[in-house]
Specification:
1 helix; five-stranded antiparallel β-sheet; Jelly Rolls; about 290 residues
Length: about 290
């Protein structure tokens, strides 16, 4: 009668290969996505060693469409897309770029967002002696807008502004400015006053007319040609702040000229006394 070796027809699944496990004939293991059968008792020999193992099945390729994504995507920041023939790699763009579509039948690409109104800076202060917006003026823009929100003075004083040239504030007498407070809602009634000044800064609001910063003030300011070295620098502004007499709301409209041909490197905001808090945002406008 013939003798049948049952071990020759029964595989023994051992799961993922472990170098510390002693494998015997007909043990089957998984290694790197492929399966191998032990043909000679072994410990510590990789399944790829043909003396001890034979390969039963081979791992397929990663990804889809026959493309191995581990070779397609080679660098951090890569993305994969499909062109007319298959999967392709698009390497990372430069800082600040966005992914743009070319539409149907075209490949995606990195591009730079183009806008005529761009936020250049946001500076938030909390109990600061001053707020500086430095080195944001560039040749890309001739006109800038500044928006200040929730501006508060610790001393209930008015907001002031100086230009910075070469990183240093100019506190000299090269400022001409004027303002009007067309209406102040207080027991004193309406106020319609225009005053011209030459001073060592520009006052966004002036406490003689009740527009001080006991409560959150709001500022909008326009700056024209700050880098132009052939003309004086011009500013317009509107400051809406609390009334220092009745704690109600008053608005100051003003304009200023900086009588210098120096290019401006920035703006410095501070309170007439005490510290200031608030958020200042600068935009470039084409």
């Amino acid at each position: 009668m013939a003798t049948i070796n049952l071990g020759s027809i029964k595989f023994k699944w051992k799961g993922t290969y472990n170098g510390a496990t002693a494998y015997t004939v007909d043990d089957v293991v998984e290694y790197n996505g492929s399966s191998y059968i032990c043909i000679l008792a072994s410990t510590g020999n990789l399944p790829t060693n043909a003396t001890y193992f034979e390969q039963m099945s081979s791992a397929g390729t990663n990804g889809t469409d026959g493309t191995d994504l581990t070779t397609t995507l080679t660098t951090q920041g890569d993305i994969v897309y499909r062109d007319a023939s298959g999967l392709q790699r698009l390497g990372a763009g430069t800082n600040g770029q966005v992914l743009q579509t070319g539409g149907t039948g075209a490949n995606p690409s990195w591009g730079t967002v183009s806008s005529d109104y761009v936020k250049l800076a946001t500076v938030t202060a909390s109990g600061a002696s001053s707020v500086s917006l430095q080195n944001y003026f560039t040749s890309d823009y001739d006109y800038y807008e500044l928006v200040g929100t929730n501006i508060i003075s610790s001393s209930n004083s008015n907001l002031r502004c100086r230009v910075e040239v070469g990183g240093t504030q100019d506190g000299g007498s090269s400022y001409d400015w004027a303002f009007v407070v067309p209406y102040r809602n207080s027991s004193a009634g309406a106020t319609d006053t225009t005053t011209a000044w030459q001073d060592n800064d520009v006052r966004m609001c002036y406490n003689s007319y009740g527009t001080t910063l006991a409560n959150a003030g709001q500022l909008t300011m326009q700056i024209f040609n700050p880098l132009n070295t052939s003309i004086y620098k011009m500013f317009n502004y509107q400051m809406r702040a609390s009334d220092g007499i009745t704690q109600e709301i008053g608005t100051t409209y003003g304009g200023a000229r900086y009588r210098s041909l120096d290019a401006l490197s920035g703006l410095l905001f501070f309170s007439n006394a005490g510290n200031i808090s608030g958020t200042f945002k600068l935009y470039g406008v084409k």
